[in-house]
């Protein structure tokens, strides 16, 4: 524990040295990016102040970026530009001469009501806007999820188990379709808890478990690939852009 | 261990410090990068179906590309985007670029600058490619533009009136596009494009997503999703096929192919640790059973 400040000091000196050397060779932003990357990666050793600082900076910058983008890309052209077009002439002259559309007062008022969440006295006002958002989203999603996720997926599972192509048996497609059918069927059996999993039903349930395990394994494998890809990206940046080792 | 015994090699392996594993993974990633280790790829049917669709589209077809991701997934998704943009431009198709994520707008600008402006100088803004920028609304936005594009997009990203742009003259809604490409790795993303545009509008949707997202989207292929690039492997397959069919692209950056070397070596190292860990675990159990005198 008592050695921690020394290690922080050593780390800081190393970073400053690398910073000083590399700034003369490469751009300031690349060096800054490398410092932040190393700060984040330092968490793998143990939690420390560099990691915390980089993490907070990342969260702050992200939130600020989304807010600025939302203001200039949405509020200015799609709200203020609709309510009072001449007001946005300096920013979006193309829509400044369009006629106003007063229907947009409704989302404007709902948006302002949302901000009442911050009021200590009347936070309940925001619930009306929230109710509208939740209701609209649920209604919108319900139809599409029913049509495309539920019915669409049932339709995709209803495949012929024996596929005849040009008068001959298409073995590969038939096998693939049988696996899809058995996989879905046994997977569903596993989640059927109203009957004891014994006999033929139990066999189906056990096959269902295997199917689920294979699925989770594939998912895990893909997750590992995703994380390694991000690591490769960071190493390409550190070794290539920063240190110039990669060709 | 028990009764003051010294731990065996396998017991020591089982209790290995995670930082040693991190070190091995770091070496497995950095050494193939330094020595430029690359492996050949072969395009899989799920990727070739989207590649072949672009090949079959006539010159001047309208391709909508949605940038639904953030810098945190750029290493995985950007190689796919670059390859598809290159492919479409090589086939002289009209590119409409948009973003459902605020962070996607800057990435769109970078892609235009790095790929279209540098490699295809003959491409004219507003005539061959267009940046519609970011709009909020998630699946609600898709739902609106499925019937009326200009209700949401009054200007392009530069503030130019949408009606004055030649490329938008023939566009009323999403049904006017020949194919929709969506790149991302979260919400809103491929799922929302399939549910709110592809299925109701009967528009072909193809996608490139992070590896984490890919297993969740496989069920949509092939009936609801034209094709899918999952993670850097999908990108590498697309890049290989692009280079095979258009050898002039061998000289441009192909990060997907470059990243598959470190990827493969790192996977081998991780698999090795999993195997060793399992051997150590079962050997430990056997030893413990022997110690207690049970078979």
Q: In summary, what is this structure?
A:
Chain A is mainly alpha-helical.
Question: Which characteristics define this entry?
Answer:
heterodimer, A: 247 residues, 7 helices, extended, B: alpha/beta, 6 strands, 50% helix
Largest sheet of chain B: 6 strands, parallel
Tell me the structural class of chain B: alpha/beta
Instruction: Give the integer mean of the pLDDT values of chain A.
Output: 90
Strand numbers in spatial order across the main sheet of chain A = 1-2
What is the straight-line distance between the termini of chain A?
42 Å
Number of DSSP strands of chain A? 2
Q: Could you say which overall geometry of chain B the principal axes of the C-alpha atoms support?
A: elongated
pLDDT < 50 stretches of chain B = none
Strand order of the largest sheet of chain B: 3-2-1-4-5-6
**Could you give the order of the helices and strands of chain A?**
HHHHHEEHH
Whole-number mean pLDDT of chain B: 93
Description:
The complex is a heterodimer of chains A (247) and B (295). Chain A has a two-stranded antiparallel ribbon. The longest helix of chain A has 44 residues, at 199-242. Chain A has helices spanning 4-25, 28-41, 49-83, 105-115, 125-157, 171-190, 199-242, and strands at residues 164-165, 168-169. With 247 residues, chain A is mainly alpha-helical. In chain A, β1 (164-165) and β2 (168-169) form a beta hairpin. The radius of gyration of chain A is 29 Å and the shape is extended. Chain B is of the alpha/beta class and 295 residues long. In chain B, 50% of the residues lie in helices and 12% in strands. Chain B has helices at 9-14, 18-34, 45-56, 74-90, 102-119, 138-145, 190-201, 214-217, 231-245, 255-292; strands at residues 62-68, 94-99, 129-134, 179-184, 205-209, 227-230. The two termini of chain B are 20 Å apart. At the A-B interface, α3, α5 and α7 of A face α2, α4, α5, α6 and α7 of B.
């Amino acid at each position: 524990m008592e050695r921690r400040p020394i290690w922080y000091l050593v780390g800081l000196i190393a970073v400053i040295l690398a910073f000083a050397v590399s700034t003369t060779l490469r751009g300031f932003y690349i060096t800054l990016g490398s410092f932040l990357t190393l700060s984040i990666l330092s968490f793998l050793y143990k939690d420390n102040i560099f990691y915390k600082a980089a993490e907070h900076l990342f969260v702050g910058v992200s939130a600020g970026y989304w807010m600025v983008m939302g203001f200039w890309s949405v509020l200015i052209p799609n709200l203020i530009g609709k309510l009072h077009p001449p007001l946005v002439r300096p920013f979006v002259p193309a829509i400044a001469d369009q006629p106003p559309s007063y229907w947009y007062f409704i989302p404007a008022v709902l948006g302002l009501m949302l901000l009442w969440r911050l009021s200590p006295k009347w936070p309940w006002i925001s619930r009306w806007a929230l109710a509208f958002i939740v209701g609209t989203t649920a209604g919108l999603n319900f139809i599409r999820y029913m049509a495309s996720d539920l019915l669409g997926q049932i339709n995709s599972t209803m495949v012929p188990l024996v596929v005849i192509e040009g008068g001959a048996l298409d073995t590969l497609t038939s096998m693939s379709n049988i696996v899809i059918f058995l996989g879905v069927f046994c997977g569903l059996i596993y989640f059927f808890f109203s009957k004891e999993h014994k006999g033929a039903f139990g066999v189906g349930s056990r096959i269902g478990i295997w199917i689920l395990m294979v699925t989770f394994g594939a998912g895990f494998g893909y997750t590992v690939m995703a994380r390694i890809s991000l690591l490769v990206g960071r190493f390409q940046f550190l070794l290539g852009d920063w240190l110039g080792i990669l060709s | 261990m028990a009764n003051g015994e010294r731990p065996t090699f396998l017991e020591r392996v089982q209790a290995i410090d995670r930082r040693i594993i991190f070190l091995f993974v770091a070496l497995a990633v950095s050494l193939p990068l330094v020595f430029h280790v690359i492996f050949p790829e072969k395009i899989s049917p799920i990727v070739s179906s989207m590649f072949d669709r672009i090949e079959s589209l006539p010159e001047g077809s309208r391709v909508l590309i949605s940038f639904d991701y953030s810098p945190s997934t750029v290493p995985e998704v950007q190689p796919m985007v670059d390859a598809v943009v290159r492919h479409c431009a090589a086939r002289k198709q009209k590119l409409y670029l948009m973003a459902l994520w605020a962070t996607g707008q800057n990435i769109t600008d970078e892609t235009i600058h790095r790929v279209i402006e540098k490699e295809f100088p003959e491409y004219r803004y507003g005539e061959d490619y267009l940046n519609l920028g970011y709009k909020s609304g998630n699946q609600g936005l898709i739902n609106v533009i499925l019937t009326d594009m200009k209700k949401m997009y009054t200007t392009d990203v530069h503030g130019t009136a949408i009606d004055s742009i030649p490329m938008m003259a023939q566009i009323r809604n999403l049904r006017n596009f020949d194919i929709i490409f969506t790149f991302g790795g979260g919400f809103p993303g491929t799922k929302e494009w399939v549910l709110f545009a592809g299925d109701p509008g009967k528009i072909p949707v193809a996608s490139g997503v992070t590896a984490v997202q890919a297993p969740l989207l496989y069920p949509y292929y092939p009936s609801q999703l034209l094709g899918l690039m999952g993670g850097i492997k999908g990108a590498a397959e697309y890049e290989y096929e692009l280079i095979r069919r258009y050898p002039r692209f061998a000289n441009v950056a192909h990060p997907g192919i470059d990243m598959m070397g470190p990827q493969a070596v790192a996977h081998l190292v991780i698999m090795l640790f999993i195997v060793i860990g399992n051997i150590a675990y079962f050997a430990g159990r056997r030893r413990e059973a022997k110690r207690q005198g049970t078979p």
